[in-house]
Automatic annotation (TrEMBL):
GO terms for molecular function: citrate synthase activity. It comes from the Bacteria. Pathway: Carbohydrate metabolism; tricarboxylic acid cycle; isocitrate from oxaloacetate: step 1/2. Belongs to the citrate synthase family. GO terms for biological process: carbohydrate metabolic process; tricarboxylic acid cycle. This is citrate synthase (unknown stereospecificity). Keywords: Acyltransferase, Transferase. It comes from Cognatishimia activa. Its EC number is 2.3.3.16. InterPro entries: Citrate_synth-like_lrg_a-sub (IPR016142), Citrate_synth-like_sm_a-sub (IPR016143), Citrate_synthase (IPR002020), Citrate_synthase_sf (IPR036969). One of its GO terms (cellular component) is cytosol.
Length: 274
């Protein structure tokens, strides 16, 4: 005879979590009492602890933090930032302003880091199967394009040509971390090999590794699964979203659209309109 759980047990077992243990007078994250975390861990360490379940070393947290810092903002020409500022002029609160922007971070704008990490992991798998770096990169790019099209996420930038100023600095920090043994440097090799191969395929014209390509190197080096690259980017970019939303609130303005009111979108008449 099967024993049915009590109502109290059924409620208690409705959600299961190893993230937080909370009851009146007690809060513990991943087994760490909150009062021992406050004042003793940094915000990047706290993000790592919550997502991964363990505490990073000081050097791991420092490298992780560089990726979070690098991605905070790229100005109002970024659709998510523009949307946040427009939302602020519509009278929304900061939480709604931030949600408006974060909800726009999709596959095209915001998802490139995840896609690039998937490419890096695929190339690493090919190397594990016996391919050399150059062959793994070429085959990985061929497979990528067959599935996703010609644009390779993490490389190229509509403004920063041929160098995205964020990427070289991040890659230098990865190399420093690899020299200390904090990371292997394997994904830095892969990322730079992809960049070189893309330049070769462009007839020798260099192409920028952009912020997504560089942060994907860091997240892969630190062992974060590819989907977390997007979530971590959302955390990072939320800082810029908050800043722009708050600034727009201070500047004022009502119902600001995507272009000044004296300009109108182009009307394209159809044949049956004439």
């Amino acid at each position: 005879m099967t024993t049915q759980p009590s109502d109290a047990e059924a409620v208690r077992h409705w959600w299961r979590t190893s993230i937080i243990d909370m009851e009146p007078g007690r809060i513990a994250f991943r087994g760490h009492p909150i009062e021992k975390l406050i004042g003793n861990v940094s915000f990047p360490q706290m993000i790592w602890l919550m997502v991964r379940g363990d505490m990073p070393t000081t050097d791991q947290a420092a490298l992780f933090e560089t990726a979070l810092v690098a991605g905070v903002d790229h100005g109002p020409q970024a659709p998510s930032i523009a949307a946040a500022r427009m939302a602020a002029t519509c009278g929304l609160g900061l939480n709604n302003v931030m949600a408006t922007a974060v909800n726009m971070l999709g596959d095209v704008h915001g998802g490139a880091g995840e896609q690039c990490a998937e490419l890096y992991f695929d190339i690493a798998d090919r190397m594990d199967a016996g391919a050399g770096l150059e062959d793994a990169v070429r085959d990985g790019l061929d497979a990528w394009r067959a599935e996703h099209g010609k644009i390779v996420s993490g490389f190229g930038h509509r403004f920063h040509k041929p160098v995205d100023p964020r990427a070289p600095r991040l890659m230098a920090l990865v190399r420093q971390a690899a020299a200390k043994g904090t990371v292997s440097g394997r994904y830095a090799d892969i990322g730079e090999a992809v960049q070189a191969e893309l330049g070769h395929q462009r007839g020798g014209r260099p192409i920028a590794m952009n912020i997504d390509g560089a942060t994907a190197v860091i997240f892969c080096e630190l062992g974060f699964p590819a989907p977390l690259s997007r979530g971590l980017f959302c955390l990072s970019r939320s800082v810029g979203v908050l800043s722009h939303g708050w600034e727009q609130m201070q500047q004022g303005g009502r119902n600001k659209g995507p272009m000044p009111p004296q300009y109108f979108p182009l009307y394209e008449a159809k044949d049956d309109d004439r």
